[in-house]
Design a protein that fits this description.
The chain is of the alpha+beta class. The protein is about 40% helix and about 25% strand. It has a 4-stranded antiparallel β-sheet with strand order 2-3-1-4. The protein is globular and about 55 Å long.
Length: about 110
């Protein structure tokens, strides 16, 4: 089953949000794709709390996810985030393993 690295970032100052969004979208996620080699990834801003940003990185297995997070390259990505946004953005990471996947199917035609 797939596993995901979830990064939840909080950008409390509205004046930093556009720069954070641009940096994450143009720099950080592109580097993460090269470094992490996820199956796919996406990011989103919360509609409930505009200061919350989510990034998801999907891996084929939880073992692949754990192996990636033990690399020096992953540690360097964390350090870059901290250098760039220390004091302006807080973040937390979680590992999520899928336990059930349900594909939506189109309704049958009459």
């Amino acid at each position: 089953m797939p596993a995901h690295l979830l990064v939840r970032s909080i950008v409390p100052d509205v004046q930093h949000r556009a720069a954070f969004d641009r940096w994450y979208g143009e720099d950080h996620m592109a580097e993460a794709i090269r470094v992490f080699s996820p199956s796919r990834c996406w990011r989103s801003w919360s509609e409930i709390d505009a200061s919350v940003h989510y990034a998801f990185y999907e891996f084929d297995t939880v073992e692949a996810l754990k192996a990636m997070t033990s690399t020096e390259a992953f540690a360097e990505m964390i350090a870059d985030f901290t250098r760039t946004w220390d004091g302006k953005v807080t973040r937390e990471r979680d590992f999520i393993q899928s336990v059930q996947l349900v594909e939506a199917r189109p309704a049958p035609l009459d």
